[in-house]
Amino acid sequence: MTLISRLIILTALIINPFLFRANAYVDSAIRIKRFDKATKFILYVVSDNIENFKQHIKAASVLKKYGTVQINVGTLADKSFHEIPEDGNPWAEYASNNATLTKFFPESKVAAFLPADFIKKNRDLLLAKTRLLKENGMQGAIFANEPGYLSAAFFDAYPRFRGPRVDHPRRSTMACFSPCLSEPGMQEIYSNMMAAMLKAAPEIKSYFFKTNDAGSGNCWTDWLYPGPNGPDHCKNESTGQRMKNLFDALQAGAAKAGTSLDVYLSHGSSNFTDAEKTDIAKHLPGNCYFENRDDFEALNIGSDISFMYPVTGLMDLYSYLQKISPINTNRPQTIFINLNSFYNRGNEDKQLEQLLLQMLADRFAGKYNGSAKEQLQQYCEQWAPAHTASKLAQAFTDLHRAFEYRNKNLRNLNLINWSVAARLANRPLVAAPQRLSALEESYFLPYVFNVSVQEARDDYIDIQGGRWETNPDSIKTLVTMLDTIAGTMADISLISGSGELIQKMQRSLKVYSCLLRSIGNFAAAQKIRDAHADRLSGTPGRPSKEPTWTGDKDLLQFNDIMRDELDNTTQLLSVLQKGGLHSLILAKDLKHEDCFLLGPDIIGQLKKKQKVMLAHWTDIEDYLTSPFK
Would you say residue 32 has pLDDT above 50? Predict the structure, then answer.
């Protein structure tokens, strides 16, 4: 290189230090401190149809002037029904909506064991999305689980590719295995799949994946649910070396396609020990990222859908503003925006999505100044008249405090586990569930996540094979806080047109409160059922003929709990029938209802719940002594 060439490059770097894209470690010891030339906004939403995807493009367009916008295109056209055994397997539902390379551009050895029409629909949808992104000046991203488990038939044909068992032994009815990426032949398959995808869709510039959870896993890692396992030939490799094999295969595919690709391994949702995380960071190839470091800065933001699901449209806006306010808009960075639920069952409410992305754009435009509280006040003045805007801002501040209370006292209160997977939202609360008929159970029991039908039937707080404890009194406190906020929001006059989102939030808040109240009731009921387990599982009988003013105290308390749940269900029905139904993510038809997705006729199911409860209201009197005055 001539002296003049060197001076030109040096001058360019002085003028624009972000000119060259970021590199990761050149080797395991040396870091190159370079940043991308522009901020990247990577939007994680799921969309199984083009019209829906167009709405996400429109919402994200407000960010284009502030950086590169990428949107997830890795959504399946339909659920992986072929992965679900005929007699069911709840664990398979974790991964049935997950994206993997094998579900879009499978190499011929893999494709032979997958439904051809399933692959074609997924691929066609992906390509249609990338064409739209190109037309709108945006790029594509993939959010995946890798390496995803493959069928038993594939490993029967290619036994040398069999990697670790990755299912959860307490949650699966069969052993499932992912491929071993230390096997050179499997590395070649992965690089070919990536090359095929990037040649067909060069608009894809980011590949983000999680691992060791929900259908994916890597050999001999400590967090594998069955315990560390895998083939003997890679046992002596470190976790960082094994993960490097996967990174290298993905980047080799990009090289074959003649393009560049940023590969991100999820730091927060992948399961590794701290020692494994450190080792992975030491082995990262170029353009591969795992955690923030000198040459790479990422921020994760999004809605509250992770713990709110199946409820949408409700958000702690104060907390969101607190998170985006410190963003240094002059420093290029990667911002991941998550608006998708666990296990890809649905997205955040569209209006709320638009608001959150607009707030982020406002931050980069410097539209609002001051603290998060002051900015919240300014937004509320857009939605409510001046004389009530402060009252609305206070309601959002109170919501923030309510969520802080929940995070401190009820940390495991994610509705997807309690309300949906355990079906506490729509199952009847009765003293002796074994007395329900098959018909009475038919609308909810098949969808309870449990490998044991008996445990699913008998234990209200068996959450996916484990006993989860919660505090009913703390839930009551939280419900009271939320109901007060909902009442305040309902009383605030709103600006026509601008206040529709606030009205939707108020309805979502009431739906959320009802679902929490159910959880508290079922948890309290199960404590009583546990205390009298022998009597409640025994033969029904008659009480003593001796007079008693109160009977068994627990019988009276159980009756109070049943009544509260009956009334709570009535309240929930009322909210849903007055517009709140749009606050819930529901299956589009009966075929798609599963343990992580409530059925389309939730109103009909709630009415069944009440009918069954009333039919079995007096069952408890066959086991515990009723008052005899």
Answer: no
Q: What's the mean pLDDT when you consider all of the chain?
A: 93
Q: What is the pLDDT of residues 139-180, one digit of tens each?
A: 999 999 999 999 999 999 999 999 999 999 999 999 999 999
Residue 149 DSSP code: P
Contact 495, 382 (CB under 8 A): yes
Average pLDDT for residues 231-256, to the nearest whole number? 98
> Which pair of structure tokens corresponds to residue 81?
């029904």
In which band, very low, low, confident or very high, does the pLDDT at 37 lie, cut at 50, 70 and 90?
low
Neighbours of 282 (CB within 10 A): 15
How far apart CA 39 and CA 23 sit, in angstroms, is: 15
Residue 575: pLDDT above 50? yes
Closest CA to 102 of 166, 71, 140, 147: 147
Secondary structure (3-state) at 293: strand
Residue 200 CB-half CA count within 13 A? 15
The size of the chain, in residues, is 629
Give the pLDDT of residue 3: 39
Q: Quick check: helix, strand or coil at residue 296?
A: strand
DSSP state of 21: P
Query: Rounded to an integer, what distance in angstroms lies between the CA atom of residue 491 and that of residue 493?
Result: 6
Phi, psi of 628 (to 5 degrees): -140, 90
H helix or E strand, kind and range, residue 531: helix 500-531
Burial 382-401 (b: 16+ CB within 10 A, else e): ebbeeebbeebbbbbbbbbe
Spatial neighbors of 569 by CB under 8 A, at least 6 apart, are 514, 518, 606, 609, 610
Q: Which two tokens stand for residue 319?
A: 């907390």
Provide the sign of the torsion angle of the four alpha carbons 307, 94, 323, 282, taken in this order. positive
* Joined tokens for residue 172: 């699966």
Q: Quickly tell me which residue has 């579900």 as its tokens.
A: 103
Report how far residue 245's alpha carbon sits from residue 250's, in angstroms, rounded to the nearest whole number: 9
Signed CA dihedral, 430, 432, 437, 441: sign only: positive
Query: Quick one: pLDDT band at residue 544, thresholds 50, 70, 90?
Result: confident
Residues in CB range of 51: below 8 A, 6 or more apart: none
Instruction: Look up tokens 């029938």; give the residue.
Output: 577
Contact 163, 227 (CB under 8 A): no
By C-alpha distance, which of 518, 83, 113, 87 is closest to 343?
Answer: 83
Residue for token digits 């709103």? 494
Cβ neighbors of 150 (< 8 A, separation 6 or more) are 102, 110, 113, 177, 178, 179
pLDDT at 295: 80
